[in-house]
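Minutes, methods subgroup
Present: GH (chair), OT, SY

1. OT presented the first of two proteins processed in the latest run. Sequence and structure tokens recorded below as shown on screen.
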Amino acid sequence: MADPSGSAIAASLLLQSSDDATTLLAPMKESANARPGEAAASDGPADPGPAAAREAHEEPPRSAHEMALGQLRRLLAAWQLHEPGARRGEDPEALHQLRVTARRIDATLGLFKRQLPRSLLQARKTTKGVLRTLGAARDLDVQLIELAQYCESLSDAERSAAEPLRQRLQSERERARARMIRGLDSEATRRWLETLRAAGEESGEHGDEPALAVLPERVRRRFRKLRKSVGKLRNKSSMEEYHQVRRRAKQLRYAIECGADLFGKPGDETLRALRRLQDRLGAHQDAHMAQSRLTLLAADPRNGLPPATLFLMGRLAEQHAQLTSQARATLSRSWRKVRGRRWRALRARLQQLSDSVLAPPAAAPPPAALSALQLESTAPAGEPQARPLKH
């Protein structure tokens, strides 16, 4: 009979000691004050950033294959760390971090798709399903947190009017969490985790390709994609277009974090600017989703909500609409901070790394020159030096 708690497979995924896992997972924390819902949910230590992560790594991996497998091992340790808390549902931050871990796994598989075994690439389909399951439960966590924050400034009567809405969202959260638990216990998810765990025992088709030859170009490519998506935004752009920008920003961020040891200060500064951009985009998406959920719920004739609750929902939806507009208005400023001097400094560093791979090795002296040097070093002082023969 399958272990419903997932403890059996969790034990098999312990690839490092708990102390090592905690050290390696520090740079993978999302910004603690990124978004309204996430800020309230997070009471852990502040994100130390890639600079602190470099202290835990003595030497970056030489090949892209090694870098990818090392990243996956750390992410599996993160999964094991956060899955029990996400299952319990007592702290929304645990589910948030589990979802972040799944996102990073997907990003790593995409970033190094040419350096990883085919079995891992096939596992990406399951990764997408896991993300959808976690995301549905996480979105309701965020909306409940935001509702609680909104109610803090209300009168007692208004809080009473908000209670039916809270109960409705709580009921939807319980159903979403039940689906999430079934997904985590499913055979597909267990096979997915086992495939990731076993990846370290396989070899990629291009296992010797240097990380310095792969990662800089992948970072540049992801920046170009982000720049193209931002360039398409207009005042009336759809939510999907803004979400596309957010996805591109995350992909660029995860790629830079993979090479934090190599990129140094330019990478750190670009990451800080990217986090601020993601904060704006995240607030924009959360507000839009909350507004859409409230609108659909209010329009449902079977919702059974009292008039006072519907009136309060209208006010709350209006506030979400204002937050969406504010996020759009500040987005261009956040993007300028990414693409400005920070990106130019990182781009120069990326070029340095690429040039170091392409630079030809120092040429060895020809045999004739070696013979001359050897004769010069052995000839007695004062005697005429032997000359190499000309060919």
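2. SY then presented the second protein from the same run.
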Amino acid sequence: MRESSGQQSVPAWVQVSRGRNRLMRPTPDLDGRTALVTGSAQRVGRELLLRIADCGADVVVHYNESEAEAAATAAEAREHGVEATTVQGDITDPEAVDALFDAAETELGTVDVLVNNVGDFDARHWETIEWSAWRNVVESTFYGTVLCSRRALGGMRECGWGRIVNVGFADSDRMHTHPVNFPYFVAKTGVLMFTRMLAADTQDDGITVNAVSPFAVENTVSDVSGYPRGRPATFDDLAAPLLFFLSDGASYISGENVAVDGGRLPER
């Protein structure tokens, strides 16, 4: 009988399985990547950014007016052992978008991951919303997503790798048409259409473009008794599909939208 060398060969199927496990682990390895999350000084954007930092990415905290909060978020991100910086800018202004990306790239290099989180809303009946407020909702939610994505694409294409995740709204893929907060629903529907278009337009560039769409998140101030499962989504609920989309295991998934709504049916 042949003597054992002390080392056992690993069957091919086990090697493949181990490789798949690395790809499909719940948190992506973002070491060496730079992530920019719009509107990340506070609330949902802050929570998403900190979870990305926990995966090893250097992070860019974007704000428009909340300078102190942005600095505090950046400081907390550094506790995860990554680099962090803050950038200010109005994402509805093309020149301001160029400037904030220039600042981010100067500090931390090419933006590999972009999360388009900003989106103002106005929870009034559509007839009572002033035109300036209507425009603000559409421009911050939809135009801001387009402008930031367009600015990020050059660096991502040059690197041959990029991840864009847009924050939608759970009912927007169903053409939600409630008369209250209507401009927001219109803008979020545009975000999902843009997501699908951009996914197709970048399919040969090593870039994926997807969306995560909550109904309500835990910072929502509202009566939650009628929500699915009796609660809003937690920040971790929303971060779960986001982090999957950022992983190597999702490299063939693009143009998709995950509704984080607990199984809600708006027609019920």
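Chair's summary of item 2: The two ends are 71 Å apart (CA to CA).
Next meeting: continue with the remaining queue.
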